[in-house]
Protein backbone atom coordinates (compact mmCIF):
# COMPACT_ATOMS: atom_id res chain seq x y z
CA UNK A 1 0.00 0.00 0.00
CA UNK A 2 1.42 3.38 -1.04
CA UNK A 3 -0.16 6.58 0.26
CA UNK A 4 0.91 9.79 -1.51
CA UNK A 5 0.71 13.13 0.32
CA UNK A 6 0.76 16.01 -2.16
CA UNK A 7 0.87 19.79 -1.88
CA UNK A 8 2.91 22.88 -2.64
CA UNK A 9 6.26 23.45 -0.94
CA UNK A 10 6.04 24.46 2.70
CA UNK A 11 2.39 23.45 3.10
CA UNK A 12 3.09 20.74 5.71
CA UNK A 13 3.48 17.44 3.84
CA UNK A 14 6.66 16.48 5.66
CA UNK A 15 5.23 17.62 9.00
CA UNK A 16 2.15 15.44 8.50
CA UNK A 17 4.30 12.46 7.52
CA UNK A 18 6.52 13.08 10.60
CA UNK A 19 3.46 13.07 12.85
CA UNK A 20 2.46 9.67 11.48
CA UNK A 21 6.05 8.35 11.53
CA UNK A 22 6.58 9.40 15.17
CA UNK A 23 3.18 8.39 16.53
CA UNK A 24 3.56 5.72 19.25
CA UNK A 25 0.65 3.67 17.88
CA UNK A 26 2.39 3.54 14.50
CA UNK A 27 5.75 2.67 16.05
CA UNK A 28 4.11 -0.17 18.01
CA UNK A 29 2.14 -1.45 15.00
CA UNK A 30 5.08 -1.77 12.60
CA UNK A 31 8.23 -3.82 13.15
CA UNK A 32 10.29 -1.20 11.33
CA UNK A 33 9.53 2.49 10.88
CA UNK A 34 11.84 4.08 8.32
CA UNK A 35 12.36 7.60 6.96
CA UNK A 36 14.29 8.36 3.76
CA UNK A 37 14.59 11.80 2.17
CA UNK A 38 14.68 11.32 -1.62
CA UNK A 39 14.61 14.89 -3.06
CA UNK A 40 15.29 15.42 -6.77
CA UNK A 41 17.55 12.40 -7.28
CA UNK A 42 15.74 9.08 -7.62
CA UNK A 43 18.66 6.71 -7.79
CA UNK A 44 17.38 3.32 -6.69
CA UNK A 45 20.74 2.13 -5.36
CA UNK A 46 21.09 5.23 -3.17
CA UNK A 47 17.55 4.91 -1.85
CA UNK A 48 18.15 1.26 -0.97
CA UNK A 49 21.42 2.22 0.75
CA UNK A 50 19.52 4.81 2.78
CA UNK A 51 16.81 2.31 3.75
CA UNK A 52 19.46 -0.16 4.89
CA UNK A 53 21.29 2.55 6.86
CA UNK A 54 18.13 3.72 8.61
CA UNK A 55 17.05 0.16 9.42
CA UNK A 56 20.45 -0.96 10.73
CA UNK A 57 21.73 2.40 12.02
CA UNK A 58 25.01 1.60 10.26
CA UNK A 59 26.72 2.99 7.16
CA UNK A 60 26.05 0.93 4.04
CA UNK A 61 29.01 0.82 1.66
CA UNK A 62 27.40 -1.58 -0.80
CA UNK A 63 26.98 -0.19 -4.31
CA UNK A 64 26.10 -3.12 -6.58
CA UNK A 65 22.39 -3.73 -7.07
CA UNK A 66 22.63 -7.48 -6.48
CA UNK A 67 24.36 -7.11 -3.10
CA UNK A 68 22.06 -4.24 -2.13
CA UNK A 69 19.02 -6.42 -2.88
CA UNK A 70 20.41 -9.25 -0.74
CA UNK A 71 21.12 -6.89 2.15
CA UNK A 72 17.69 -5.26 1.80
CA UNK A 73 16.13 -8.72 1.90
CA UNK A 74 18.09 -9.54 5.05
CA UNK A 75 17.24 -6.23 6.74
CA UNK A 76 13.55 -6.12 5.87
CA UNK A 77 13.15 -9.88 6.15
CA UNK A 78 9.41 -9.83 5.38
CA UNK A 79 8.83 -7.60 8.41
CA UNK A 80 5.81 -5.30 8.53
CA UNK A 81 7.31 -1.88 7.89
CA UNK A 82 6.30 1.72 7.36
CA UNK A 83 8.60 3.54 4.96
CA UNK A 84 8.31 7.29 4.43
CA UNK A 85 9.86 8.50 1.17
CA UNK A 86 10.01 12.25 1.66
CA UNK A 87 10.18 14.88 -1.08
CA UNK A 88 9.95 12.66 -4.16
CA UNK A 89 10.28 14.38 -7.55
CA UNK A 90 10.77 11.40 -9.86
CA UNK A 91 8.19 11.13 -12.64
CA UNK A 92 9.81 8.10 -14.30
CA UNK A 93 7.23 5.35 -13.94
CA UNK A 94 9.72 2.59 -14.80
CA UNK A 95 12.07 3.61 -11.99
CA UNK A 96 9.23 3.66 -9.49
CA UNK A 97 7.87 0.31 -10.70
CA UNK A 98 11.32 -1.23 -10.16
CA UNK A 99 11.58 0.32 -6.71
CA UNK A 100 8.05 -0.68 -5.69
CA UNK A 101 8.61 -4.23 -6.90
CA UNK A 102 11.79 -4.47 -4.87
CA UNK A 103 10.20 -3.04 -1.73
CA UNK A 104 7.06 -5.16 -2.01
CA UNK A 105 9.00 -8.37 -2.55
CA UNK A 106 10.59 -7.90 0.89
CA UNK A 107 7.52 -6.54 2.68
CA UNK A 108 5.63 -8.31 5.39
CA UNK A 109 1.85 -8.31 5.38
CA UNK A 110 0.47 -4.89 6.28
CA UNK A 111 3.54 -2.92 5.24
CA UNK A 112 2.95 0.63 4.03
CA UNK A 113 4.79 3.38 2.19
CA UNK A 114 4.03 7.09 2.53
CA UNK A 115 5.32 9.33 -0.26
CA UNK A 116 5.45 13.12 0.03
CA UNK A 117 5.65 15.14 -3.17
CA UNK A 118 4.76 18.47 -4.72
CA UNK A 119 3.64 16.72 -7.90
CA UNK A 120 0.24 15.17 -8.63
CA UNK A 121 1.98 13.25 -11.44
CA UNK A 122 4.42 11.66 -8.97
CA UNK A 123 1.51 10.78 -6.69
CA UNK A 124 -0.45 9.11 -9.48
CA UNK A 125 2.61 7.12 -10.57
CA UNK A 126 3.57 6.02 -7.07
CA UNK A 127 0.30 5.74 -5.20
CA UNK A 128 -1.84 2.66 -4.78
CA UNK A 129 -4.24 4.58 -2.53
CA UNK A 130 -6.02 7.83 -3.39
CA UNK A 131 -3.70 10.76 -2.84
CA UNK A 132 -4.04 12.98 0.20
CA UNK A 133 -3.85 16.56 -1.09
CA UNK A 134 -2.87 19.24 1.43
CA UNK A 135 -4.07 22.73 0.55
CA UNK A 136 -3.92 26.17 2.10
CA UNK A 137 -6.38 27.13 4.80
CA UNK A 138 -9.08 29.60 3.79
CA UNK A 139 -9.42 32.91 5.70
CA UNK A 140 -11.93 31.55 8.22
CA UNK A 141 -9.84 28.45 8.95
CA UNK A 142 -6.70 30.60 9.28
CA UNK A 143 -8.44 32.93 11.71
CA UNK A 144 -9.82 30.04 13.79
CA UNK A 145 -6.38 28.41 14.06
CA UNK A 146 -4.63 31.70 14.85
CA UNK A 147 -7.29 32.60 17.42
CA UNK A 148 -6.94 29.24 19.22
CA UNK A 149 -3.14 29.31 19.23
CA UNK A 150 -2.65 32.98 20.08
CA UNK A 151 -5.48 33.51 22.55
CA UNK A 152 -6.74 30.11 23.67
CA UNK A 153 -10.07 30.35 25.44
CA UNK A 154 -9.03 33.31 27.58
CA UNK A 155 -9.33 36.13 25.05
CA UNK A 156 -11.30 39.15 26.08
CA UNK A 157 -13.54 40.85 23.56
CA UNK A 158 -10.94 43.53 22.82
CA UNK A 159 -11.99 44.78 19.40
CA UNK A 160 -8.68 46.54 18.74
CA UNK A 161 -6.68 43.39 19.54
CA UNK A 162 -8.98 41.25 17.41
CA UNK A 163 -8.65 43.72 14.52
CA UNK A 164 -4.84 43.60 14.71
CA UNK A 165 -4.91 39.79 14.90
CA UNK A 166 -7.20 39.51 11.86
CA UNK A 167 -4.88 41.81 9.94
CA UNK A 168 -1.95 39.51 10.78
CA UNK A 169 -3.89 36.48 9.56
CA UNK A 170 -4.76 38.19 6.26
CA UNK A 171 -1.04 38.81 5.65
CA UNK A 172 -0.15 35.16 6.25
Automatic annotation (TrEMBL):
Residues 2-154 form the NB-ARC domain. GO terms for biological process: defense response. The keyword NADP does not apply. GO terms for molecular function: ADP binding. The keyword Cell wall biogenesis/degradation does not apply. It comes from the Eukaryota. Signal peptide: none annotated. Keywords: Plant defense. This is NB-ARC domain-containing protein. It comes from Triticum turgidum subsp. durum (Durum wheat).
Amino acid sequence: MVLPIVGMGGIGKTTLAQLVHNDQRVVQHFELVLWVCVSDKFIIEEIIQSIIEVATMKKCDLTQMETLQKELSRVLGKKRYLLVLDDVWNEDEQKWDAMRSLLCSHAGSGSAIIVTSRSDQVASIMGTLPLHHISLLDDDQSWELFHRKAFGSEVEKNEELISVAKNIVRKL
